[in-house]
Amino acid sequence: MQKGKKIFFNSDQHFGAPTAKESKVREKIFIDWLEHIAPEAEEIYLMGDLFDFWFDYKTVVPKGYTLLLGALASITLSGIPVHYYRGNHDMWTFNYFEEELGFIMHRKPEIVLLNGKKFYLAHGDGLGPGDRGYKFIKKVFENKINQWLFRQLHPDWGILLAQFWSGKSRYANLERESKERENGKYDDQQWLLNEPLPRYALQILQQIPDIRYFVFGHWHMPIKLQLTDNCSYFNIGDWITHFSYLTFDGSVVEAKTWKPNL
Fold this sequence. Notes:
Blueprint: E1 6-10, H1 20-37, E2 41-46, H2 66-77, E3 82-85, H3 96-101, E4 104-106, E5 110-114, E6 117-122, H4 132-142, H5 144-152, H6 155-182, H7 189-193, H8 196-207, E7 211-216, E8 223-228, E9 231-235, E10 244-248, E11 253-257
Parallel strand pairs: 1-2, 2-3, 3-4, 6-7, 7-9
Antiparallel strand pairs: 1-10, 5-6, 8-9, 10-11
Helix pairs in contact: 1-2
């Protein structure tokens, strides 16, 4: 890595939710963050769910997000690589992000070597034990025939329908996480280690013991766990309530929070 440069990780912005008006406020905050980090960014990793819903139509771009998309394109045009790990709210991203924004797309979990250290990177949806209902639905959504059928709907109807289901999923997860936080579960390291994503990370670590960092999105709580003396686990958090992100300076990963001017 270049001296003085950092790698940034961000996830789960869910732009478009809960309303277009409220989303624009958060989009502006995110753009401010991009402009702030650009001078010291060597690479940026967006770990999924940038939008609450996205579908790559052949000739239609979902309305809105003009300033946001322009800011992201400006980052890649400046020579800063932007990696994107597809999430569960934008699994119908096919090639628009690559062709129009210049993103480097990743559609599966990957082990990446960053400054000589192994990172296991993924959005996180469908990983680990349990959640069979979602895993089944994911297979349905990834089916090319079902994607073709959805494309036949007029975008006004298709996007409205998809936003309805995305909202139900997101609010259910936020409600569950709120109850878990109120019950103090996020202060219980043993409880956290028994959650699906940390359990999945521990299984992977048994197979590949020299992984130094696991970095996931999906789970909206900012979480750090020490899996072993040499391996740390991170959930980035979100940009709905936490405005959290990670930095890697070539030596260590740090969890940080952006203080928005609301």
